[in-house]
Amino acid sequence: MGIAWGLSMYSSAFAERNAELRTRGMAPIQARVALARNACRLVYRMLVTQEPFDEQAYRRRRLSRVR
Q1: Which of 11, 21, 29, 38, by CA, is between 20 and 30 Å from 62?
Q2: 0.90 exceeded by the pTM?
Q3: Can you give 24-61 as a three-state secondary structure string?
Q4: Cα–Cα distance between 43 and 12 in angstroms, integer?
Q5: Angle, CA 67 vertex, CA 30 and CA 41 arms, to 5°
Q6: What is the pLDDT of residue 18?
Q7: What's the farthest any 2 CA atoms get from each other in the chain?
Q8: What is the CA radius of gyration of the chain?
Q9: Which pLDDT score, from 0 to 100, does residue 29 have?
Q10: Strand, helix or coil at 25?
């Protein structure tokens, strides 16, 4: 949960995601849980591929998904 808070404060891509989740009606704790889950999945992918975090690529991939 701490990493979700930190990312929402200091990473513009995660701050945008947090705002999006809050706009969709999530309570602050629900949005933080969703961000934490997303961060865990992202970190796992980074460990598997051994690639550094690319904020622009993250933003493009997230926005390219149709919901």
Answers
A1: 29
A2: no
A3: CCCCHHHHHHHHHHHHHHHHHHHHHHCCCCCHHHHHHH
A4: 17
A5: 55
A6: 92
A7: 35
A8: 12
A9: 93
A10: coil
